[in-house]
Amino acid sequence: MTQNPTLSKLLPLSALLALGLSSLQAQAQTAVPTVVPTVVRIGHVGPVSGPQAHYGRDNENGARMAVEELNAQGLSIGGKKVKFELVAEDDAADPKQGTAAAQKLCDAKVNGVVGHLNSGTTIPAAKVYNQCGLPMISPSATNPELTTLGYKQVFRLLANDNALGAGLAKHAAHTLKLKKVAIIDDRTAYGKGVADVFAKTAKELGLEVVSQQYTNDKAVDFMAILTAIKNKKPDGIFFGGMDPQAGPMLRQMQNLGLTKAYVFGGDGICTDKLMELSSGAKTLGNVVCAVGGASLDKLPAGQAWRAKYEARFPKQFQVYSPYTYDATMVLVDAMKRANSTDPKVYGPKLVEAAYQGVTAKVMFEPNGELKNPAMTLYTYKDGKKVALN
């Protein structure tokens, strides 16, 4: 390093040494290359438009929370610093849009997928993901068909309709001692699936199915269906569908004087939003609904997780966001165990999962079903959803 002669005469030796050291440090700092993290993209698909948008937003929020927390950990996988990004798509609860969203994620070469919400979108999308080699964990699609398709990297994070429909039928027969039930379903893969299981189990338990009616997932007027059912005088009505239909149905049941019949349904109607959609109908208190998991309030980490969620996404919680959160974490856990974010490398590790999540100790059967899934029954009291078990 060449020193300025005039400066050398004016400064003491110690100052010159300090100046030289400072210069060398500055050069060393500029020579250190910046570490650019490897971007790992997690796809999420759900209905964030249309009447089921509150479900989709809730699911997306759960996945987003997981991504934010993972990034805060500053993880390295396979010796490389990683940064996670959520790639969110909207399927509007429509099967065609669902397969299009799946293909979009395949083309974008995301590293894994959390979704879809509905069985009717998840089942056809699973074929697309299978073809392009993307692991997929659904947080909420409960139709049993999903895990019978033979796709090795398709997983489900909660109990299926066989558990939900059967559990509700057993509650109707054994706990409530009902004799006659009517059934309505919306003809979707989810609604028909859970209703069929309820009907089959109810008959096996000696319940009489006095009426079986059908609607669709866009309907809002159920007066004709409910009038036909009322004449059969059932003790309970099972609805296979989602809350945008269940809410108006509860109001119309009250208007028709169907105020003593229990109303059964799966996780599709078991939301906080149902209270708003039913507009204060007294029949809300007759609802008994099932969710494929333990009550969040009763889980060791559940209340703390819910508090974090409410702070991040106030008044948006519905049902499945803890499951999308866990699904995202399970994908990344497999990446860490495989020392790779490559779907071909970490995908086979998913079936070996033993991850302690918010919703459960996540372990999978060889076909992708959750091992030892819990189920919780809920009802509505004083404007709140409360667990019965």
Describe this structure in words.
The N and C termini lie far apart (78 Å). Strands 8-7-9-10-11-14-15 form a seven-stranded mixed beta sheet, sandwiched between helices. A six-stranded mixed beta sheet has the order 2-3-1-4-5-6, with helices on both faces. It is elongated, with a radius of gyration of 27 Å. The longest helix has 20 residues. The N terminus is likely disordered. Helix 10 links the parallel strand 10 and strand 11. It has two domains: 196 residues, Response regulator (Rossmann fold, 3-Layer(aba) Sandwich); 130 residues, Rossmann fold (3-Layer(aba) Sandwich), CATH 3.40.50. The chain has 389 residues and is α/β, with parallel strands linked by helices.
What do we call the CATH homologous superfamily of the largest domain?
A: Response regulator
Q: Uncertain spans, ≥5 residues at pLDDT below 50?
A: 1-11, 13-21
Computed Rg: 27 Å
Quaternary structure classification: single chain
Number of domains: 2
The average pLDDT is: 92
Structural class: alpha/beta
User: Element order, helices and strands?
Assistant: HHEHEEHEHEEHEHEHEHEHEHHHEEEE
Short note summarizing the structure:
With 389 residues, this protein is α/β, with parallel strands linked by helices. Helices cover 42% and strands 19% of the residues. The protein has helices spanning 5-10, 13-31, 53-72, 95-107, 119-132, 161-175, 189-204, 223-230, 243-255, 273-277, 302-312, 321-338, 343-346, and strands spanning 38-46, 76-77, 80-90, 112-115, 136-138, 154-156, 180-185, 208-214, 236-240, 262-265, 287-291, 355-356, 361-362, 376-381, 384-387.
